[in-house]
Structure formats: C-alpha cells, structure tokens
Design a protein that fits this description.
Number of domains: 1
CATH superfamily: 2,3-Dihydroxybiphenyl 1,2-Dioxygenase, domain 1
Shape: globular
Oligomer: single chain
Bound molecules: fe (ii) ion
CATH topology: 2,3-Dihydroxybiphenyl 1,2-Dioxygenase, domain 1
Radius of gyration: 19 Å
Length: 323
C-alpha cells in the first residue's frame, strides 16, 4: 500500500474540445495545452494542469492522484491491479501507473510532473474585516475592497473528485488498500444499519493537514445514478469567487445545478454548475482541514444530503453521466 498525497485531475471525454474549453475558461480555469484530441487546463497554483479532457463520446474516464515518490509507483506496479510504470506525455511530463477500480473506472497515479511558475500571492484571500472589537478583527485598514467585477472565479486547485459507484464500501476497500485513502465521514442509510451510501475520503498525510475529502464515493443505489462522475470540485481563492463565478456562469446561460450553500460534510461553501455536456463542476471554499488523527464521523443521510444553509439539494444532483 502507498499513501497518495492529493488528487491530481479528472479525465473527462466530450465531443467538442472548443465547447469544453469555453466553459472551463468561464468557470475560471486557464488553458495549458489544446490539441485536436486533448485539452489540459490549469489553475493559479503550481500544477501544469488540474483538468484533462479527451475528445470523443461524452464519458467520464477516471481520476488521477499524486504519489509521493517514484518508488511508490514502482510499488503499485507490482500489484496485479496496476500497470507497469509508463512515461506521461501530458504537459509537465512525469510517470504514471494505471488501473481500473471495482466499477471499471480508470485510476492514474502519477509522479514527477514538472511544476509551473506561480505567484503565491494569487492564492491568498484579501484581508477580511470580520467585525467585532479589537485590531485582530480589522485586517484591512484604510483600504477599500475592490473585486474587479465582472470576472470568473480565481481557482487555486482541484479540491476533490466525487464518483458514483455500485458499492462505496467495496470501492473504499480498493482505494484504501492501493492508495491509502482514509474515511472522514461515512453517510449511513438509517442509524445503525451499517450500510453506507457515501464515503468522504481524505489522503493520509500523517500530522499534516489535508482536505476533509479529496475523494468521495457515492452509492448508485440511493438514486438512479450510474457509475461514473458525480462531480469535480475546484477550490477558489475566497468567498467572493463563489459569487463572482456564479454571476459570470449565469450571464453565459450555463445550467446551474445547486447552491449557493454551505455543506455539512466538509463544511465548504459551494456552488455547482453543469458543463455543456452535463458534467457537474463545483466552486468551493472554506472547507475543513484534518490531519490523520481525526476519527471518521458517521452521519445520517438527511444531514449529509446537503447543507447547513442554502437551497435544497436538486433531484438531478450527482448525475453527471445521464444528464
Ligand atoms: Fe463537492
């Protein structure tokens, strides 16, 4: 077993890369490379790309994760489920091992992708005056706040990938065994049933904090979902980016799926949009950060179904494949 350190990118397949690129730019990503057959998009962080699309029939191909070392790829390549170590031809190069998970969804584990130059300042939220008394609550002094409207969201990084699977427990065992993912919250179908309809998973980085969930396994059984993409979530710089992005995507007549609200599991402020091909993309910020000492929570399905505030979850939410 190895311990992956983060999610890297989703791999989607759609008929028109031009249409896909236009949506992703409005969503806030920037083109790294576009060929006749592939599209790679980046955010403001160090990664060469955080979103990959292949030209073809609409389909979710799979998920990519970052390994800590080339040694970890070698270890995985010895497992029956994984390929030998191959060279990546995508921007930044590097190496990859590939597998199919229990639902036949592709998994890439990569190492050695070169990073790009980036400005740390671009990733930091503007000082926020939260009110109250005392200098510590007034961070922005004699300085008006100007957000530069209209503009797309500023995207820091890939937050998490969520996939629909036949049985989250079976999938979890696979991702835990091979990639070292650990549970953050288990969503139970009825108290004490021991049947989990969703498993929010994080990477095991020891004492280092990481996102409450980098990967979410959602059961197909609780609805008419089919195995494949539930949604892909991108972390934006600050809360203004949730609302600014919302305005841009609304003005361009993209289909809004769900939001704006604050989740229960993971606590993020969220907003969900559909690409022209129906793949659900999320803007999110202010999520929980856990080290590996936090024990998994068990939450009732009614709480996890959604949010602490915001509109009710839509009936079509999570169905990125059929819509
Ligand atoms: Fe999400």
């Amino acid at each position: 077993m190895i311990k992956v350190i983060d999610v890297a990118y989703p791999i989607l397949q759609v008929p028109s890369l031009n249409k896909q690129e236009a949506f992703l730019k409005d969503f806030g990503l920037v083109t790294t490379k576009k060929t006749n057959t592939e599209l790679y998009m980046q955010g403001l962080g160090p990664h060469k790309f955080i979103h990959k699309t292949i030209k073809g029939k609409k389909k979710f191909i799979g998920s990519a994760f970052y390994a800590k070392s080339i040694n970890d790829l070698n270890k995985l390549s010895k497992s029956e489920d994984f390929s030998e170590v191959k060279k990546l031809k995508s921007p930044g190069g590097g190496f990859v091992v590939e597998a199919l998970d229990p639902d036949g969804l592709k998994v890439e584990v990569i190492f050695g992708m070169k990073t790009k130059k980036f400005n740390k300042k671009d990733l930091i939220a503007e000082p926020f005056n939260s009110g109250g008394i005392g200098k510590e609550t007034s961070l922005r002094k004699n300085q008006p706040r100007r957000v530069g409207k209209p503009r797309s969201s500023k995207i820091k990084k890939l937050g998490h990938l969520a996939i629909n699977v036949s049985d989250p427990s079976v999938s979890f065992d696979w991702y835990n065994k091979h990639l070292g993912l650990i549970p953050s919250d288990k969503v139970e179908l009825g108290k004490g049933s021991g049947i989990y309809v969703a498993l929010f998973c994080r990477c095991d980085l020891g004492k280092k904090l990481t996102d409450h969930h980098s990967f979410l396994l959602q059961s197909n059984l609780s609805s008419d979902l089919i195995s494949g993409l539930n949604h892909c979530a991108y972390e934006v710089v600050e809360v203004d980016d949730i609302f600014l992005g919302h305005e841009v995507l609304k003005d361009k007549n993209y289909k809004h799926e769900w939001g704006i609200g604050r989740h229960y599991a993971g606590s993020q402020i969220f907003d969900y949009w559909r690409s022209p091909y129906g793949h659900v993309h999320e803007h999110q910020t202010d999520g929980d950060l856990f080290d590996n000492q936090v024990k998994p929570g068990v939450i009732d399905i009614s709480e996890a179904a959604g949010m602490q505030w915001g509109p009710d979850i839509t009936k079509t939410f999570g169905n990125s494949e059929g819509v």
